[in-house]
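Sample entry copied in:
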Amino acid sequence: MPAGRGPLTVTALTRPGTYETVDTIAVLNVDLDLPWSAVSTATEPIVLGDLPVDRCGMVIGDAVALDSWIGFIHERPPVNGLADLMIWGKGDTEAWAQFDVPPIPALWNDHQHGWLDLSIDTAHERKAAINRWAAAHGHYQHLASVFPHSHHHLGWRAGWQHPLGAGVIEVAGCPILCITWTPIELQRFTGGGAYGQAYPLTLEPVGGKAVLRWAIPPDEDIAEPDAHARSIIDAIFVKVRDGQVTNRPFYAAIGVTLDGDKDVLGLWAGSGGEGAKFWMSVLTDLRNRGVKDVFFLVCGLKGLPEVVTNVWPQTIVQTCIIHLIPQHVPADLAPVLGRTQTRHHTDLHRGQRHHGQGRARRPRREVGQWVSGCDPVVGQRLERVHPVPGL
């Protein structure tokens, strides 16, 4: 996009947020510092395309300078040799006191603590010490996280004190405007283009000058997912390397609509000790993002069934069949499991999932018919859990 040779003026029109009473961006205007006649002979706005809201944020700046942009750093060194260390998670308040961790001022998160602008080696040394202490005291073992200084991180940090999350950093000698959306407001932008969540970018004449404009409609104009006949929430354990290799659960929520379509509603990384409070935040997040009702929720996770009706009062909870077998199969069906596939080994959601998989599938077929018969004894054992008919 052509532009004048000097710094460009970027302005924003705001409106109240969808879920909070904070201002959020409704329209972005970039004054290109050029007369309209220099870019077009037409008198009407020119539609350049559609632009979605990226969860990682937005940058506006010189195209040549952005060729030098460094986003997420893995093995590469920081752009300035420095890093930030932040502490959050279960046990964070105890860690703040134990290690005398200072607060980090930020408009969006007044509970943020850590150290800024440490050398990369010092940051990793402190992280290792804090996480060892956390694991020894039964806290979240990844309390401390290191954020090497990439341009993406520095741009995010530059907006901490701005009400719209906007800040300016320098890349290749040019000022770059970085915009980060508030975590709460991002909840309405998870559908992407499939749900009409991409918005027109236009070039318009304003007062005889060329202006680049991007407008985000209010929430009531956004298409929302339909109600889901069934939602399935479960976890898979993944080995994660963060200083040391640990098994961490990653939770997935899958929704099945009334038309039979499947939607991935979200993914969450856990620590393994999630309870009712964690699941209440997950289900509230799903509801705020457009899942207005769920008929059946299939799960086998601790703490989840207790909070479902607080979000969707009429939802029926069903236990996943893999969790149902070892808990409720009577002793006289134990031979079906085979000599080596004992009852506690049928939990296929853990590390032994690939061991004896063929033998574990056979009892699922044979026992499934017995469970689906709605035997009164099974019904008493399951209490609030409803077996799936015809499973």
User: Anything to note?
Assistant: The longest helix spans residues 120-136. The first strand starts at residue 9 and ends at 16.
